[in-house]
Design brief:
By secondary structure, this protein is an alpha/beta fold. The chain contains 15 helices and 14 strands. About 35% of the residues lie in helices and about 15% in strands. Strands 13-12-11-7-10-9-8-14 form an 8-stranded mixed sheet. Strands 3-2-1-4-5-6 form a 6-stranded parallel sheet, with helices on both faces. Bound molecules: nicotinamide-adenine-dinucleotide (NAD).
């Protein structure tokens, strides 16, 4: 018997390379459409300076009017058109202009296709889109075709087709297509980015980000129930850009590194279907979006990223924002702090720096001095005004200010269409991974060969 067993195991060992066990699932490939002939990338796209930027807003629900208000505080901006399905929303936005002593803008309202008239207006330089997720890309593409730059709320695109269409249209028309990702302009994130770029954290090897925000107070305020409906129909991280954007910037994604593949894992859905049942009595047969979704990404240069999504559990708000470097660590939620090797801290900053180790966060007074020293140059310029105008504590104003600053000078924008693509592609690609037992899914090089042409992220000045 012993001999038979021995022969059995020996034959398994000898034959094992030939047994077709799919022990290493292959990566799910994604399609990269060929770049049309004569079309080139829009990396560091420069355009004709526009000293007086004429803006049309499309989508004036909960988010849009705040942007209208913020833009009234930026010199060299003219708000010429306001568009929403609902007349009461365009009227409310015009009241903001009136209150600020500015001329009223043209109003467009009535149905979901009235925006066509706005993208066709001749006297508009920038279309600012804050409609629901489903219409973002369609409006953005049409606006670029009519010769306008576009700024689109997050997430700007929901499918791979939409992402590639935005890229192709921006490349073909040479118009800016920027996603309005405000979280990269938060004070802690900008300061930390500056620390990373000055080498304080060493090489950043791992990053984390998230959107963890119970949306129960908002669900019934979204126009036409678009947000819950999207969650009901789609599994995966449907809102990844707030978490992923700041991490990608710190890792110079498509400016020396690129996202290679992701794997995603989720829980079952409990919170949102229960909410629907409680509010409407409807029993949801299949609610696709799990309560908690985790996605891991590996980059070409061997770095890792963890992104999470949860809009239903009773948890404190968190975008996580965490960077692990070879010499230091930054963390925003729930505790904002830095941990650094003692040797990394200038003795002028902390007299007892030799005693500091990365085993705990630096003391509050050291953190304060560090944050002042590494304040990002673009924050130095505008901090006071940003805090006064506001918008998530000021970051929304910095985003709008930078958009206008660059357009007025013809400079490349801080975020290009490839950032938009990389940060949005988690929406369709995590769904593919989850529907295939968390299989790895390839993340395409949206620059189609240009990912290491640029040497790191630089904000134009
Ligand atoms: N960056 C951030 O911090 C942040 C915060 C909140 C919302 N957002 C984003 O802003 C966008 C809008 O969110 P919201 O909370 O204002 O939603 P909302 O439902 O309150 O507003 C959407 C508005 O778009 C209008 N609309 C829809 N389709 C239209 C069309 N075809 N033409 C014209 N108007 C149309 C609706 O009438 C509604 O007023 C979303 O993409 C959301 O993710 C971003």
């Amino acid at each position: 018997m012993k001999k038979i067993n021995f022969l059995f195991f020996l034959s398994i060992i000898i034959l094992s390379p030939f047994i077709p066990i799919d022990a290493q699932p292959s990566i799910i490939k994604t399609n990269i459409p060929t770049r049309p002939l004569g079309q080139t990338d829009v990396l560091e796209l420069t355009t004709e300076p526009i000293p007086n930027v004429r803006i049309a807003f499309i989508g004036l629900g909960m988010r849009g009017p705040g942007a209208v208000e913020r833009m009234t505080h930026i010199p060299g901006v003219e708000i010429v058109a306001l568009c929403d399905v609902l007349e009461k929303n365009t009227q409310k936005a015009n009241a903001i202009l009136e209150k600020r002593g500015l001329p009223k803008a043209l109003e467009f309202h009535g149905d979901t296709s009235v925006w066509h008239k706005v993208t066709a207006l001749p006297n508009v330089d920038l279309i600012y889109i804050a409609t629901d997720w489903k219409s973002h890309a369609t409006i953005g593409i049409q606006a670029m075709k009519y010769g306008k730059h576009v700024a689109i709320e997050v997430p700007a695109a929901m499918t791979m087709d939409e992402i590639w269409s935005l890229i192709n249209t921006s490349e073909k028309t040479r118009k800016h297509c920027m996603q309005l990702e405000n979280c990269v302009y938060d004070f802690f994130e900008l300061t930390t980015l500056n620390m990373v770029q000055q080498g304080l954290l060493g090489e950043v090897i791992h990053g984390e980000g998230a959107y963890i925000h119970g949306l129960q107070p908002y669900w019934d305020q979204y126009w036409d129930n678009w947000r819950m409906e999207f969650n009901e129909k789609h599994r995966g991280d449907v809102y990844p850009t707030h978490g992923l954007g700041p991490v990608c910037q710190a890792m110079n994604i498509h400016r020396g590194d690129k996202l290679n593949y992701l794997v995603s894992l989720d829980t079952k859905a409990i919170g949102n279907p229960a909410y629907i049942k409680e509010k409407t009595g409807r029993e949801v047969k299949e609610f696709r979006n799990g309560d908690h979704t985790m996605t891991m990404i590996r980059t070409e240069k061997g770095k890792s990223i963890l992104i999470e999504h949860n809009v239903t559990s009773p948890r404190p708000y968190s975008r996580m924002y965490q960077l692990t470097g070879t010499k230091g660590f930054a963390n925003k939620y729930p505790t904002e702090g830095y941990a650094l090797d003692g040797g990394e801290i200038d003795s002028k900053i902390a007299a007892n720096h030799e005693n500091l180790t990365a085993h705990s966060f630096v003391p509050e007074d050291v953190k304060k001095v560090l944050m002042e020293k590494y304040k990002h140059p673009i924050v130095k310029d505008i901090e006071e005004k940003a805090k006064q105008v506001g918008g998530h504590g000021g970051m929304d104003f910095i985003m709008d200010y930078r958009l206008i600053y660059c357009l007025q000078r013809g400079l490349p924008l801080d975020m290009d269409v490839y950032d938009l693509a990389e940060w949005c592609c988690l929406i369709p690609l995590t769904e593919i991974s989850l529907d295939n037992n968390s299989a790895p899914v390839e993340i395409p090089d949206f620059t189609r060969g240009g990912w290491d042409k640029l040497d790191g992220l630089k904000f134009a000045q």
